[in-house]
Amino acid sequence: MEIEVSGRKVILRQIAAADTVPLRHSILWPDKPESFVLIPEDDSGLHFGAFLGDDGNGPISVISFFQESLPGAQDTHSPQPAARFRKFATESEYQGQGIGSELLSFATNQVKAMWGVNLGWCDARVSAMGWYVKRGMHELGGNGNAIFFKEHIPYLKMGMEV
């Protein structure tokens, strides 16, 4: 899919898991080895990227989705079909321009069509919570009481209907 963001042509498309790794590493965990951003389920996920025009360079934003129920949903009689997104990253120089928002929307629609899910969720860094709220997500588990840590970074579970 081709869109225009801030006067630039941006292409949104499905990509291979390996194409997400350099950006995952450089933005999310630059102080860790590249292997730290690999996910065992990468081969079964759907991965998406945003690219500037047809410049042939790598993605400037990436996101990965996995068929995974919300923790605790297995305890209900009819859990909602869900997809978890992970390792969502946008190059620093392109943050705040709407590219990540467009990629999240595009990828969520693709995942809904392909997997029939109606709930999207993630482990969101607390520092990014406001960004997710602006895009229609809400905290799962309520009132900041469910903060947990990955390494030294605080996270919350957030979700949205898709």
Automatic annotation (TrEMBL):
| Gene3D superfamilies for this protein | 3.40.630.30
| SUPFAM superfamilies per the UniProt record, alphabetical | Acyl-CoA N-acyltransferases (Nat)
Q: Which Pfam families match?
A: Acetyltransf_7
Please give the Gene Ontology molecular function terms for this protein.
Answer: acyltransferase activity, transferring groups other than amino-acyl groups
Q: Which domain of life is it from?
A: Eukaryota
**Ranges for domain N-acetyltransferase:** 10-161
**What is the protein name stated in its UniProt record?**
N-acetyltransferase domain-containing protein
